[in-house]
Design a protein that fits this description.
about 250 residues; alpha/beta; TIM Barrel; 8 strands; globular; binds phosphoenolpyruvate
Length: about 250
């Protein structure tokens, strides 16, 4: 059985004090015993303080992005080496990075190699846009994202993949659990053709896009949906810890 992962992407929300408050509330209300891996991705500035708060707890910490270079003239960027002291996870290829900041498949691929080399556990996001879906191109788009993002990666290791249809992110319109299952199965098959079926059988493949406490159980009921990447519904502790509770009860 794959690990179940519930990840909170706070995006560009929460000041440092607001992040501290949210983490403290999550820690108060998180199920005390759980086999679910819970990862929070605060904004960069909140990461050092968050790392102190989660020390000796079951909650893991990640960064929403990183640069592939180790250091240098990249104004405004943060390297994997800078994150290593605080984080154990990193989000790569989120659709907002790809669409709003022009991140290419090649760049995501470079970051993926570097994150692995630096011991950060990546969550690689893939997903089609609305027009792709309307034109029946979902599988082509995702195949292309996988092939280019994983180029020259020789071992799937502990990489996590998140299927995030762009049209479902922040819209309140989630994919149906059946659609998520079908695409997640497709992703596992594509990864299997690169790394071998056995190697990817335990790779967590998440679904992301308007997941809430009301629909998480339906997604986790599917065999190839091994967790969720959650934006909006992770910004308040009650909703997010309820999602964690439901996920814990189901695993
Ligand atoms: C996301 O940004 O990764 C996401 C899934 O957002 P939301 O849950 O708000 O749709």
């Amino acid at each position: 059985m794959s690990e179940t992962v519930v990840a909170a992407n706070w995006k560009m929300n929460k000041t440092v004090s607001e992040s501290d408050y949210l983490i403290t509330e999550i820690l108060k209300n998180i199920p005390p015993v759980s086999s679910v891996t819970c990862v929070v991705f605060p904004p960069f500035l909140s990461i050092p303080s968050a790392s102190r708060l989660i020390r000796n707890t079951s909650v893991k910490l990640g960064a929403q992005n990183m640069h592939s270079a180790q250091n240098g003239a990249f104004t405004g960027e943060v390297s994997a080496a800078m994150l290593q002291d605080f984080c154990s996870y990193v989000l790569l290829g989120h659709s907002e990075r790809r669409l709003l900041f022009g991140e290419t498949h090649e760049f995501v691929n470079e970051k993926l190699s570097v994150s692995i080399a630096c011991g950060l556990r990546p969550i690689v996001c893939v997903g089609e846009q609305s027009l792709d879906r309307q034109n029946g191109l979902t599988e082509n788009v995702i195949r292309n994202q996988i092939k280019s993002s994983f180029r020259n990666i020789t071992d799937i290791g502990n990489i996590i993949v998140a299927y995030e249809p762009v049209w479902a992110i922040g819209t309140g319109t989630a994919a149906s659990p059946d659609d998520a299952e079908n695409i997640n199965k497709f992703i596992r098959d594509e990864l299997g053709s690169i790394f071998g079926t056995e190697q990817v059988s335990k790779t967590p493949i998440l679904y992301g896009g308007s997941v809430t406490e009301d629909n998480i159980a339906d997604f986790l009921g599917k065999p190839n949906v091994n967790g969720a990447l959650i934006g909006g519904a992770s910004l308040n502790s009650e909703g997010f810890t309820e999602i964690l509770r439901i996920a814990s009860d189901l695993t």
